[in-house]
Amino acid sequence: MYRDQEYWGKALPSFGDPEAQLLIVGLAPAAHGGNRTGRMFTGDRSGDFLFQALHGAGFANQPVSSHRQDGLALRNCYITAIVRWAPPQNKPTPAEIRRCLPFLESELKLLDRVKIVLVLGRIAFDGYLQVARRQVKLPPKSRMPFRHGATYELPRPLPRLHCSYHPSQQNTQTGRLTLPMFKKVLRDIRKCLASGELS
Q1: C-beta of residue 80 within 8 angstroms of C-beta of residue 24
Q2: How many C-beta atoms surround the C-beta of residue 172 within 10 A?
Q3: Domains: count for the chain
Q4: pLDDT score for 199
């Protein structure tokens, strides 16, 4: 389908507003999405779903993202991922996750205005908590289950944690994650940021 295009084909950088209060943590670049275009969630169905919702919530200037020069800009939002390259069969190995987590850890230190972290899917949730546990003492995993719409107040200085199913086609085409479900998560985040209670 994309034989005429030159693929990015290397580790994918994060992108967005460096002063963002919202940090979104995804899973990994899609083989024919970010791995092709060179920008996370750009050029695939997951990105179509994500940016439509972000635009509706005011976190993006446009609802579509097809290539790196398409004019997309994130507002008060920054996007990163647990794994920086496209894994075989879209399933990152534990070794790949371990190799990439230091990049996420460094980003969290640099993005010092983040008030809320939104993880997309269980792997992003587990990976983010691995990094968080290096900084603070957290409750056991049994008291912090992953589920869509869950929120957790983590010990300072960590941001508040919000959870969503990943916007993969496997989830969106089966109805496990619908646009109204995801928009509600973003509305809740928007309300939290507007309330000032996280300052």
Answers
A1: yes
A2: 21
A3: 1
A4: 60
